Amino acid sequence: MEGRYEGGAVRRWLHTARGALVGAVVLGVAHVAHATPPSRAAAPHNLHVAHARVVIEGNVIVARIRMFRDDLQRSLKRAVNDSAASKSAVAAYVAQNVSLVSDGAKLSGEILDGGADMDGDQPIWWVLVQWKAPRPVKVLALKVHLMFETFNDQQNIVLVAKQPGDERRGLYFQAGDRSEQVLKF
Question: DSSP letter at 6?
C-alpha cells in the first residue's frame, strides 16, 4: 500500500512508527490487524453513531470512518467481512452516503483500506477513504449520512484537521437533517 497516500503530513502520519502511534491516538483507533469479532455475542448498544476523522493537506483529503459493525450490516442487509463482495458493497454504500465538494468540485473517493476492529466489546468496521481535489482545499462541503435510512436516531460525528497548522473543526450530522455542512479555511 506504500505510495497510495498523497500529501506529506498525511503520508508521514500514517506510515511512520511515531505517526502510527500518534495516528492511533488522534484517530481514536486501537486497530488490531485482522481483528475478528469475539465468539460470544456483543452486548447490545443503544447508540447509533459513526465517527470520522478527516485530515486535509493541500488537495488531498483522507478520512478514517468507524461504524458499529451490526449497524452497518443492518443498513447493507448483508454480512460485512473481508470478502471482495462485502468490501465492494461497503465501498458503494460509503460512496452513496458520504459526499465531499471542494471549492465547487464534487469529489470521488477511493477506499484505501478497511476491516474489522473492536471498541471495547463492540465489533466495529472501519474504512480509510481518500479524495483528491483539483486544487488545495479552501472550502469543503460535507454530507455524512451513513445509516440515516436505517436508524432515525443515527448520529455521525466528524472531526476535521487541516494541515499544515492543525486547524481543527467538528461537525455533527443527525438522521432527519440531510443538509450539507460547509467549512471555510
Answer: -
